[in-house]
Amino acid sequence: MLDYDDDTGVLDRTSFPHPAGEVWDIASCPGDSCLVSTVFSKVGGEDCQGGVGVWRMEGEGEGEGEGGTLQEVCLLTHDGVPKCSVWSPTSSRRQLATVDDKTATLWTLEQASASVQSTVQLDGKGRSHGYCSSCWNPHHNHSQLLVSCDSALHCWDLRSQQMAFSLDAPHGLYDCRTKFWDARKLTTPLLCRQDHSHWIWSVQYNLFHDQLVLTASSDSQVVLSRLPSIASEPLRHIEPDEGEEDEERPPSPMTDDVIRTFEEHEDSVYEAVWSSADAWVFASLSYDGRLVINHVPTQEKFAILTS
């Protein structure tokens, strides 16, 4: 666990031995910062078995790097091989969705157990690798789960247990592009950008200002972009001419552009994420284990706040 103090710039870490096996995926609960879920695998006899566990972090240690402990809350049973887990973004609900190679399951957590809220049978026929990652649709009261299957994206409604929409082959082979889509019209992307020279592994909107987008790539770069053309609240700025300072002029729209390219990494960057507590802080993680924390440039921050 990493604890970052934005005022001092100090980064503290605490390690937690994982008692259940090798960790393949980890997610923290938005409503309880001490609660985490892990997707893991362990060797049992001649087989390698997978599972999903919910844990409570305890004992953060007294010094830099000292260890804490993971107390088991519950283990979630799956018939298939678990791939990932994602918590409901609504902090008032302690719900967790898990995806394996056959099903997507919504769990409700109690004090020391979990009950199945709903289960969707996923259709992965004809796919060589099955489902591998997922995220919540921010609309429809977070009742839809978007999952990736090979080169396709499928969105499943956990209430009706039906597929809401699907998008096959949204990218060309190794096209190094970021594409933005409108789920209501999937015939063509709203916006297509090529800001990297190699594969893109991570794309994420800012949680507070959705015109800010992070992308991370195998070219070892993290790109921070401003995309007001597809934002919920497009940015505008005022450029007064000489002699017209006292006159009111209509604001002009800001254009889509790269704000800054961050090059602190020396290897492929596999993840770039925004802070859930501070709109202007983000972190990136590269293949060699290097973690870098950065900020949105001050000029861009003020432009957003005053627009």
Automatic annotation (TrEMBL):
BP-aspect Gene Ontology terms: protein ubiquitination
Region (Disordered): 234-256
InterPro entries: EIPR1, WD40/YVTN_repeat-like_dom_sf, WD40_repeat_dom_sf, WD40_rpt
Signal peptide interval: none
Pfam families in the cross-refs: WD40
Family named by the database record: Belongs to the WD repeat EIPR1 family.
Protein name: EARP and GARP complex-interacting protein 1
Organism encoding this protein: Geodia barretti
